[in-house]
Amino acid sequence: MAASSLPSPPLAAIHASHSGCWLRDLAGTRPVGKGEAIMAAADTPLLMLNAPLVASRLGYPDLSGLDLLELFAFIHPARFMVPTPKGLAQALELTEPASDDAVPELLQAAADALLAACEDPAWPEREGAWSALQSLVRLRWPWAGLLTPRIAQPQRAERWLFSRLPEWEEAPERPQPAQIVLQDDAITARLAELTGSGAEARPAQQAYARAAGGMFAPRGSQRQPHMVLAQAGTGTGKTFGYLAPASLWAEQSGGTVWVSTYTKALQRQLRRESRAAFPPERAAQAGRIGPPVVVRKGRENYLCLLNLEDALQGGFTGRPAIMAQLVARWAAYSQDGDMIGGDLPGWLGTLFRKRGITALTDQRGECVYAGCPHFRKCFIERAARASAGAELVIANHALVMINAARAREPAQRPTRIVFDEGHHVFEAADSTFAAALTGAETVELRRWVIGPEGNQRGRRRGLAARLADVASYDDEGARAIADAREAASALPGDGWLARVVEGAPFGPLEDLLAETRELVLARDESGGQEAGYGLETEAAQLGGSFIEVAGRAQEALEALRQPLMRLALRLEALIEDGPDWLDGPARARIEGARGAIGWRTDLIGGWIALLARLGGPGDPEFVDWLALERSEGREWDIGLHRRYLDPMKPFAEAVLAGAHGVMMTSATLSDGAETASGDWTSAVERSGAPHLGVRPQVFAAASPFDYARNAEVLIVTDVPKGDIPALANAYGRLIEASGGGALGLFTAIRRLRAVYGRIADRLARGGLPLFAQHVDPIDTGTLVDIFRDDPRASLLGTDALRDGVDVPGHSLRLVVMEQVPWPKPSILHRARRLAHAEKFGSGGQAHDDRIIRARLAQAFGRLIRTGTDKGHFVVLSSAFPSRLLTAFPPDTPVRRVTLDAALQSVAGSVSGAEGARAPQDQTDETRP
Ligand code: SF4
Questions:
Q1: Which of 2, 53, 389, 876 is 20 to 30 A (C-alpha) from 732?
Q2: The whole model's pTM is what?
Q3: Mean pLDDT, rounded, for 121-128
Q4: DSSP state, 588?
């Protein structure tokens, strides 16, 4: 990369890691203490990489400077970069720093390279830069002064972002898919095409692909989809295995296949791998309009252009306004406007320390649809429309469920669905079909109906403003809107939590929340009171005064539901009448409003049902409880909760009944103990199939990996439970023994932080950087990118990392679990445990064991991702029950050892010492 043509200003640079701080100025690079580093940064803006991280390393939250990440986001919007010195060097093709003290010099070289890039006539992201810079100058962005002399004013005025983005086009409705039968030979041939003609034949993958083909057979009866449950170990080649029949079916039938995942990592992988199966040329030849593969996420993932416009025009001030400018730069170059896990760097939001990114997405259905000036360019609308014409839609479990239940148009309802990561469908259904009557939920509903009140800013509009034209045309509609507005004033408003905590609630719903809080505090015996965790109590034996208050809250909700239902009927009638003023855009807006009202009346209906049952006998289909949500002792929400005892029941109605073919697949679909005996009982139960009387086809293939040679499970028996210093010591020494490359999994954030605090500095001094969720000011996706990129880095985390991490190769060679991952003994868990015991007569332990084995299997699955990966899986548990060992693949060696012996094994395999085994008194585990 060329050097800047203007003389570089003498920018000093600072780098801080756990092992120290280095400052580079005119005198060269030297180590400095934290105090000196803070003073230097206060004196003059210093070059740094990731200011919030440097601030946290220096223990000085107010640190600011010339952050190279911000500059990178401006110069190269929508480009991927791992936000570490090494990642920066790679992105700019500079020499990677060999050690911490070489980093400040790299930062200077990177600043030079980036500033030079914008003087290069071939700078690909030039359009829009000059205009954005003028705004950034006004906002006093620290980089603005350095960029101004380097970015020339274009000769022709730059188009505004909102006029530059392309418009989506209306597509004709598609006919229903043809009924076809896929032949096994054709599936095998398509698979061979996808894997490459030279690829060696993998019989298990071929068998898997043929089994997957079963879901595409024409349906024989209503509400009877073809269902396939396919368990295939890591390395079987599942993705191409199901994409082969899916692409054949989509091609021959003209229909759409949905592939649903649970993690963003798999979505990214699918996006890459599906290109070969769904080439655009073939789709175009077949007369398809638009891209053959579309990724769809929930609305809350995408940039809302109207929110961005509002932010750019004064809705955001100070640092968030700078962020809005950088987001606008990105929006012009983004592939699809996806802000969460798409091409917006995950680190951008964390640089600004506020929830700014969330405020730019479309939260909670504020969209005004065709009433929005950017409707024809809207990223969300584009994705929704494209998915109706696509061959393959990649989505997540929650979105598939929501779309199946309430898609606006039939073409957007999934009918052929592959649930990859199928072991998560149960929990996705559990949250999708849950009801939560809480302060946070009700305050949102109030805002949606009433709009901004008091000093609130922003572009949010209430129902009356959104439907002003309806109100002026239709008296009954106007009355319904006015009644809804009036009724919504009984809902909690801003400041509700403080009023409730101070004992001064306002209105029937706040009264209910205050009673709920009192009762939870009185009854909770979980032990969470002292630890500062959330508290809960079952919705049982409620006193007369609680029932009375609940009754008044129920009436208030009914008073809101009625006018909303009337309004929905008026809108329906209006669409049918088709008055003159109802042109295409107005119709689309009213249809949008009708959909939004529909799901809110359903939501309120769910709350009413929950309140209605409080005084009477419990409904065996549901589990109800009251909760006070807290984190680190700080209360943030209060409310009543309802879950289905079996969430697969509403799932079966909403998703399976309307589908023609469904596949659920995973490496851990059934329980390890059951797979060994060919018993699919729990996997079938958890698929929802029995609710429709469907008998799924089942398929199982073992992993082709050589676990006996490449993996070892070590159960460390001499780290006492609850002893934090011992736990930290074990983690620190294990990470040292493996030379980094460790993923540490915790079941409690408190313990994670305690361990991190004890070992991070020591490891860093040994050249082993340690990162942690819930500690480092970095989003989880970026943490995984950093971990993947540096084989000496280690990462500590909680649940989300247990199966959201796909790091093949040497970067991940050790997984350490702090203890057996017991399920949290919540009220919901207790109810399901009891139900399981009653149904199967097996005692509650079988239920718990299945959950633990699944968690162990998922965590173990992080370790060996390819045939050449090697590594250790360590559980720190003095009393690990042998019955849980079936969680691991059958041939994996398992040993119970002391920490010293485990260290020997881990270090031995790292140094290549052949078969470094534990001392002879440690016996190999015999499986039950
Ligand atoms: S159509 Fe809706 S989501 Fe899209 S930009 Fe406009 S308001 Fe935002």
A1: 53
A2: 0.91
A3: 94
A4: H
